[in-house]
Sequence to fold (308 residues):
Amino acid sequence: MINNSLCIFSTYFETETFPLYVKTYLNELLNYFEKIIIVTNDNKTLSLSENEYVTKNNFEIKYVKNQGWDFGMWTKVLKDINMDNYSSLGLINDSCILLRKIDDFFYWAETNNLDYFGMLDSPQRHYHIQSYFLIIRNKALNALLSYFSKTGILNEKADVINHYEIGLSQHMIQKGIKVGAYFSYKKYYENNPEKPNPLHGYIGALMSDNFPLLKKERLWQLHQKRLEFLKNENYNIFFDKDVNFKIIQENLEKINSVFDIIEKNNVFYSLNDYVEQAVFFESFMNKQNKKNKFDYFIEKVKKRLKFV
Fold:
């Protein structure tokens, strides 16, 4: 537990219950922060049991209008908090699923000399700490508060990325504040000509190194891609379409190997949970009830990979 620590956890969902991956994340964060504020969209009402969960764990919950992405939510909460009462701040969002415990990260945090740091960094566009998991402390706190106050709420995603995710890291560096990450992109870029977002492009390598987070969006993309490959395989069998079966199989094996690595390096979820969360996120992304859209192919995946 970090003394005098505050975590603001931003999450967007439209149901009356917390999604599984959100509760899992919150339960783990309880081990490290003295106070946790959940900030979420205001177009819903939580069930009685979920309100009891909030009370039992001494969470504070703030309902706000969905503006400015996660930085907008964080900004709305921070303007009403006296940060003189805290020496450490965590800004964390629900864009990732927590796969395993994060005690190693916090052991490292106790010994490093950084004041603005996170789980993973990236050199894309300009060097920055990826913003789904940020820790701010000491002199970086005032720098962050003044930057938030000056920048305000930005509604365009590109502006949020440029001015907050990237711009905030650059602002800290310019202020002489020490910035860094537990997992360095340099290890994964080494001897590789392609330089993608490290959390997307090097997911298998990161999981092998016990990286504890997986982007929800990436989970859905992997499942969607796998289902498409299976669909093409079925077309090839049943409709005699001109499909390169070898390429389908090779790509399917690559994706399956990623999930094998994920399964070996997490403690919270089974493979069935991955399927369920991928379906949930597909529905979430489309803002419609399209949950049954890929049911046929999901059953094929389950049987093929022995999920059931």
In short: The beta strands are 2-11, 33-41, 60-64, 88-93, 96-98, 116-122, 128-129, 133-137, 179-183, 213-215. The two ends are 39 Å apart (CA to CA). DSSP finds 13 helices and ten strands in the chain.
